[in-house]
Amino acid sequence: MYETNYHRAKDAADAAKKLRSSDDGMYLSGGMTLLPTMKQRLAAPSDLVDLTHIKDMNKISVTRKDVVIGATATHAEVASHAKLMKVCPSLCALASHIGDPHVRNRGTIGGSIANNDPAADYPSAMMALGATIITNKRKMKAEKFFTGMFDTALAEDEFVKAVSFTAPKRGAYSKFPNPASRYAMAGVYVADHGKGDVRVGVTGASQNGVYRAKDMEKALSKSFDAAALEGCNVDEGDMLSDIHGSSAYRANLVKVMAKRAVEAAAS
Amino acid sequence: MGIEGIGARVLRKEDKRFITGAGRYTDDHKVAGMHYAAFVRSPHAYAKIKKINIKAASKMSGVAGIFNGKELTGDGIGNIICGWMVHSKDGSPMNMGAWSALATEYVRYVGDAVAVVIAETLEEAQAAAEAVEVDYKVLKAVVSAEDAMDPKAPQLHPEAKNNIIYDWEIGEEDATDAAFAKAANVVEIDIRNNRLVPNPMEPRSALVQYDAAEDHFTLHTTSQNPHVARLVLSAFYQVAPENKLRVIAPDVGGGFGAKIYIYPEEIVCLWAAKKAGVAAVKWTASRSDAFLTDAHGRDHVSKAKMAFDKNNKITGFKIETLANLGAYMSLFSSSVPTYLYATLLSGQYNIPNIHCNVKTVYTNTVPVDAYRGAGRPEATYLVERMMTTAARELGVDPAELRRKNFVQQFPHQTPVIMCYDAGDFGASLDAAMAEIKYDSFEKRRKKSAKNGMLRGIGMSCYIEACGIAPSAAVGSLGAGVGLWESAEVRVNPVGTVEILTGSHSHGQGHETTFAQLVTDRFGLPNENVQIVHGDTDKVQFGMGTYGSRSGAVGMSAIEKALDKVEAKAKKIAAHMLEAAEGDIEIKNGEVMVKGTDKKLGWHEVCLGAYTGHNLPEGMEPGLKEGAFYDPTNFTFPAGCYICEVEVDPNTGVTTIEKFVAADDFGKIINPMIVEGQVHGGLAQGIGQAMMENAVYDDDGQLLSASYMDYTMPRADDLPSFNVSTTETLCPGNPLGIKGCGEAGAIGSPPAVINAITDAIGHNNLTMPASPQNVWAAINDGGMSEAAE
């Protein structure tokens, strides 16, 4: 690891100020991707501004079906939150399968979505849940926030403060893990918001990062049943291809995972 | 056997320090004046080094020296050797290219070391290494063995035309062809044996201490054979004469073959410590270094055909194999696809005619050498996939086809050098079939089908050769070393015992099992016996541990030394007790006169040996004996593995529902440790079959260069193994041991693949049977074995 300066932000304003005054600083929010990258000398930020000590930024609040999750809530906190479990168990289940216990106790939801790894789990949930991403500067819908692989709408000194959404009627996440890394090779989050509003977020598979599968949404809004997906076509041309999965294989996995998510949500 | 003797499940003594974090590995050692080495490595698979600029780097803080390959060879450091001479079938010696520990003119794989930086801290060494500017002329690389033989392919070494190292054969080609001409049926298969990265838990490491006043070096290193390392470092690399070089392999966290060899880093650190004028230099591989520079395993492509008569008896077997040896010839690389591979192509079967042709080639990849099993997994995979394929094509049960062709009479001379000394192959097959409930499999298959799943069953009847000996035999086949083992038994004046052994434990549990021999012999508590190994200053010489040889060869040497100790102790006791030597018996820590109540404590006899007050006339005092043991033959562990799988046709995910292993390892010293070895071997074999794969792109970049992309088997990938043993004693050594260290990795891959091909209904499946490959096999008839 190259030398770096570590700063602990007191509050949101302090965090942005510290980042702006650094040469080439980065926000740190768990560091489950950033720190290993730095250890391999593949990243060399001059300064790290740690957001995880900002008071109350890890709070999870559930009011009826309205959910707000603070950005520094760890995966373990999301996975085990009793009230959240009642209104949106599928998100708790998703969080409980990220990485391993070490990662779940250090990694945060804000860090995960700000990194927007194409194989991360949370972005699919944000899409399917119709989440609003709240930053230190503004609010935006998930679809505006995720702009492509490892890319978000966040400005240089902008960071995620919280995410908010209304819990769906039912939902489920089905993930096919990469056999080596166990990141998602295809992860599909299906959320039925009622009144024909079904959203499907797909992660891990596409060359463009997380996306909403509109044709699946249309099919499911007519009939929330795995069989309804039979006629949907996943375009191979959009899929990633690597040593673990050709684009054809990934396209197949998206469909199989979508079916399994629907089955799980419907049961 | 007693509670701690031969056959007892004694808990591993060494585990106390390992599981409490008190193990002392090379990187744990810290000494005064210790500097760090960092290597400048090639980012290109093939390139000419035009210029190395160290100007900026050498001015950086903490830097004590930056050295390159020309300086290394200029100082007389010898090229890295391959220690096993193989001749081509035309009689010419293998075409070995030069391998300097630091590249001089060309780099030939990604990770090839170009220069070394010695600095005060690791950070300073790494920073300076990054500041070294190397100007390369990048050349077109060749990665696959098939491509390497193309005359238009890049030529990697002037010695090896078309990159061919040797073109070797074994067996009678004419007789084999004649058998095929008369065959009632011929079965053909193409097989690829995937390339693997060894991945011991502890990465390689070296700590050099240089004593300038004495001109003496001490090297702590991660070695499976510290004496061989010292011999090669001094005799071939001219680092220091043997008496000025002490090599210590302390606790070593796994080897699997990858730590047999003497790598560039150890050589360079020894030389550079003296050249930089520093007291000590340490280098420890990162996991990335391990992926890029540890010798890889396997990487064979074969075409095979088998001839059968009208009664389904095998009449001939013909094989053509192409093996990728990487950019340079590693220490035993030449022997793996020849004498350790083709000599096992008879499997458990009576095959009158065998012919095998093996070509090996250079490519722009990491050198390939022995990895757990070394040649025998490749042979077993070929033979056992062939047997199952043949059974399908001939329309007979795979178990019955095997049984019909089993070797029944021992000794059995195969057409490919090996002479099997003992075995009962039917017994292992019966045991495994009973355990997995082979007869009711079709019921289970139907049940799976109801749930939309594909169920399959596959078997593998393996035989392998362990011990790698006798010395005269391996010498006649080209080995540069003898393959015996040494032991010294030192009995202390109060009766405790130290055993010095040339074997080296890097996970095998020698500290426990070797002590069990003493417990068994004299009835002393296991705690009273200490095993000393891994230090050339303490143990005089030894050949180290690989090839499942420490039981069959290492323990036999201890047995021989114990015979001598026992004989002398009896003489002393007979004298002290005024009895005939033949009447003395040693049992439960006591030395007694048979049939009387006259006895001495073991410690009294030992003390007597050292006081020398009352010894038989002319006897030297002391109780310490040594022995060198050279076996009369290889040993032949064998067994039967049966695997039952369920495949999800939607995703290609394969679940091992049950895995049964029935092994014959001969005499077993500690069943618990043997079971552990089988479990670990099976995990590695299943890893090869379903997960692990070293993949290079066309430019020679390793794509699977971290655990993000290289799939290691994990506990949740594996079933609960069902292991058992049958026993036929090995007639070739005093204890009847055959060896158990590699069997699991050798026997399991074909059992897994035979099961999956049974499930999907055709043979077109290549290792690793990853979800993607199985799905592809189900959906498009699979990828071709030979051309992926």
Task: Characterise this structure.
The complex is a heterodimer of chains A (267) and B (788). Chain A folds into three domains: 5-50, Uridine Diphospho-n-acetylenolpyruvylglucosamine Reductase, domain 2; 60-166, 2-Layer Sandwich (Uridine Diphospho-n-acetylenolpyruvylglucosamine Reductase, domain 3), CATH 3.30.465; 170-266, CO dehydrogenase flavoprotein, C-terminal domain (Enolase-like, domain 1, 2-Layer Sandwich), CATH 3.30.390. Chain A is built from eleven helices and 14 strands. Chain A is 33% helix and 24% strand. In chain A, strands 4-5-10-6-7 form a five-stranded antiparallel beta sheet. Chain A has a four-stranded antiparallel beta sheet with strand order 11-12-13-14, sandwiched between helices. Chain A is of the alpha+beta class. The longest helix of chain A is centred in the C-terminal third of the chain and has 20 residues, at 247-266. Chain B is α+β, with helices and mostly antiparallel strands and 788 residues long. Chain B has three domains: 31-139 and 201-254 and 259-293, Aldehyde Oxidoreductase, domain 3, CATH 3.90.1170.50; 300-469 and 633-780, Aldehyde Oxidoreductase, domain 4 (2-Layer Sandwich); 484-629, Aldehyde oxidase/xanthine dehydrogenase, molybdopterin binding domain (Aldehyde Oxidoreductase, domain 4), CATH 3.30.365.10. Chain B is built from 20 helices and 28 strands. In chain B, the strands form seven sheets. Chain B has a seven-stranded mixed beta sheet with strand order 3-5-1-12-9-10-11. Chain B has a five-stranded mixed beta sheet with strand order 7-15-14-13-8, with helices on both faces. In chain B, a hairpin with a 4-residue loop joins β9 and β10 (216-221). In chain B, α10 (376-394) runs parallel beside α19 and α15 runs parallel beside α16. Chain B is globular. The two termini of chain B are 53 Å apart. Residues 783-788 of chain B have low confidence and may be disordered. Classes of the chains: A alpha+beta (267), B alpha+beta (788). The interface between A and B is medium-sized, with 17 and 23 residues.
